[in-house]
Structure formats: C-alpha cells, structure tokens
Amino acid sequence: MTTTVSFGSAWLTPRIREFVDLYPEIQISLIVDDSELDLSMREADVAIRMSPPRQPELVQRHLLTVNMHIYASPGYIKKYGAPKSVEEIDNHRVIVYGEETRPPVQDVNWLLKVGRADGKPRRAVLTVNNVYAILRAAQSGLGLAALPEFMTHGATNLVQVLPELEGPRVDAYFVYPEELRSSKRIQVFRDFLLRKVADYDF
C-alpha cells in the first residue's frame, strides 16, 4: 500500500511502526510530500490531505481538525524576547512556507499578515517549502513559526507564543479511490488511523 501524506507526516510517521507490528503482511510505502498526487491514476493508494478532494471519484473520511498556533524555541525567546501583542510580531523574525510550490493548506502563511492594519505582509527571515523543515528551523532558534498543534505536541524545545492567538483551522481527510472501497488493507489502515486520532490528546 502506497500512502501519501501532506502536512501530517510528523504525526503519522511514528505510528507506522505500530501499524506494521499489527499487520506485518501489509507492506507500506510512505511518500511525504506537500504536493497532491493523483490517486485516480494510482500514484498512491491512499492519502491524508488537508482539504477535501476535488475529484468526485475519491472516497473521503474526515480524520481531525488541525489548530495552528505560533511557536518559538526557548533560546530564541531568551535572546529576542516574546511578542506581547500581535503587532509586536513586526519586530521578530518569522519563518513561513515558500511560495515556489503549491502550499499544503490554505492560508498557511497567515503569520505574515495577522495584526497588520495595512494588510501588507511582513518580511520573512526564511521561506521553506516543507512544514517539517519549518518546525526544525523554529527549534533551532531561527524565529517564530506558525505550526499545527500535532507537530508540537510534547515538544520541550518549543514554546507557544501569544497563546490566545489561533490561526486558521484545517480539516484533515483520509482519501482513497472508489475502486479500493472494499479493499481489506485500506479498511484496516483507515480504521487504525481513526483509532489513533480518537486516542490522541490534540
């Protein structure tokens, strides 16, 4: 089974080992990619996407709603302080998703414009077209980053900044072609993910 994941790989990847332990007869090929592979052309069997599929022949199942917040490393806050208001983000370094490729979610770069009365975007210190790389850059102390809660869950090297400020909510979907609806391996993987989501403390 080939699985493509956009945006949610930091949550899914550690759980693949558990799935393989439970179902050793199912071989997994995990493609971590922010681009959208064509499931109808069988570029992958299933996908976890951060928007409803546009192709009508795909089956979708809502997995969870993702909340976005702003984070920085303790080292960054020690050196530069933390913004006390949304307007003070203007005085900080921000890390955002690059515009060279299609972003994995809508409004992924809301950190550039939030709190800006003139609507003009802030200048980013770094743009990178991979959400995990944004996480790593924030952990290194480079700047502030808007990240989904599931990526920062349990992280001791990140601090939530302006906790009252929440970015856009994003819905994640488990998606697969209609022709695989009766596939047992797809069913067990779907049910496994739904159990993990239900058990996870987001």
**What portion of residues belong to β-strands?**
15-25%
Helix count equals 5
Beta strand count: 10
CATH architecture of the largest domain: 3-Layer(aba) Sandwich
Widest β-sheet, arrangement of strands: 2-1-3-10-4
List the domain count as a whole number: 2
Q: How much helix is in the residues?
A: 10-25%
What is the H/E order?
EHEEEEHEEHEHEEH
**Average pLDDT for all residues:** 86
What gross morphology would you assign? elongated
Oligomer: single chain
* Computed CA radius of gyration, to the nearest angstrom: 18 Å
> How would a textbook summarize the main sheet?
5 strands, mixed
The CATH top-level class label of the largest domain: Alpha Beta
Descriptive account of the structure:
This protein is of the alpha/beta class. The protein has two domains: about 1-65 and about 170-200, D-Maltodextrin-Binding Protein, domain 2; about 70-160, 3-Layer(aba) Sandwich (D-Maltodextrin-Binding Protein, domain 2), CATH 3.40.190.10. The protein is built from five helices and ten strands. The strands form two sheets. A five-stranded mixed β-sheet has the order 2-1-3-10-4, covered by helices on one side. β1, α1 and β2 form a beta-alpha-beta unit.
Task: List the defining traits of the structure above.
alpha/beta; 202 residues; 5-stranded mixed β-sheet; D-Maltodextrin-Binding Protein, domain 2; single chain; 5 helices
